[in-house]
Specification:
The chain is α+β, with helices and mostly antiparallel strands. It has 7 helices and 21 strands.
Length: 294
């Protein structure tokens, strides 16, 4: 039986027994027993320090768009609810980690600032984008990242510039108890109409090439070097392959979709089947791009 949480932790904003179906874009998973939603950086720091003091492990949840939850999660889950405010200083935009990633790209376009067009259509929060170094169309967040703020696993507040090795393809060092708090991107002056047009084109590309009408967690597997995970899955004959309500999308093979009533077990089985088939056909080991909680 899970141990009781300390009183000072329970004084922070939280909810009990929230279904992960309501917290993730995929819409599967068990129950989040303890969902903490601090509204200030001070509360976030108090959460982390209380967990460290008590020896309590915890998980960090962003927008739930790059996540597959396979079971109940009994340990505390942290989801930031910081004020959704963007600050502009010249050609720089600063946003809290709980701000919408797509919304920030649209804000930049309206302000006539170029550099975030690639982010149009990438769901989730800016904190999740920082954690995963989100990218598309040959660009990624670290290309425009100027500074970022985070808490260390010990609860220390750090603000710094990115350094070599800290970010790479769909990865950053911000794992294992680190908590992203926000970032500043350095953009460039441009023509607002032209930037908005590029954003619109990128949004349309995603709408026509990806199964956005079905619940999904985005691209499930990372692209192997020099190849495309979606192409490998397609060539293995798996488009449209279905286990229960979980399916390899006929539109984009690297998307596994929920037709409405899929279970976590069905998604786990579908992911395992895809990896096994691609390994057998191509000799390639697909690596998950999504985070998996169990």
């Amino acid at each position: 039986m899970p141990r009781p949480l300390p009183d000072d932790l329970l004084k922070l904003p939280h909810r009990r027994d929230v279904p992960f179906a309501k917290l993730t874009t995929l819409g599967v998973g068990g129950t989040c027993r303890w969902l903490f939603e601090p509204t200030t950086e001070g509360e976030v720091q108090s959460f982390v320090r209380a967990c460290v003091r008590e020896g309590l492990p915890y998980k960090v949840l962003g927008g739930g768009s790059n996540l597959v939850v396979l079971d109940d999660i009994e340990i505390p889950v942290l989801r930031l609810a910081l004020p959704k405010e963007v600050i502009r200083e010249g050609t720089r935009l600063s946003a809290p980690a709980s701000y919408g990633h797509i919304r920030l790209s649209q804000d930049a376009a309206k302000a006539g600032l170029a550099g975030l067009e690639f982010a149009a259509g990438i769901p989730g929060t800016t904190g999740g984008a920082l954690r995963m170094n989100a990218g598309a169309y040959g660009r990624e967040l670290v290309d425009v990242l100027q500074t970022f703020r985070f808490l260390t696993p010990e609860g220390e507040l750090v603000e710094k510039r990115p350094e070599p090795g800290e970010f790479r393809y769909r990865w950053s060092f911000l794992t294992g108890g680190h908590v992203a708090l926000g970032y500043t991107v350095a953009l460039a002056e441009g023509d607002a109409e032209a930037i908005a047009a590029t954003v619109a084109v990128n949004m349309e590309k995603r709408g026509t090439s990806q199964p956005l009408s079905k619940r999904n967690a985005g691209c499930i597997f990372k692209n192997p070097t020099g190849s495309s995970a979606g192409r490998l899955i397609d060539q293995a004959g798996l488009k449209g392959f279905r286990i229960g309500d979980a399916e390899v999308s006929p539109e984009h093979a690297n998307f596994l979709v929920n037709h409405g009533h899929a279970t976590a077990a069905e998604f786990a089985e579908l992911m395992a089947t895809v990896r096994e088939k691609v390994r057998a056909v191509h000799g390639v080991e697909l690596e998950p791009e999504v985070e998996i909680w169990r």
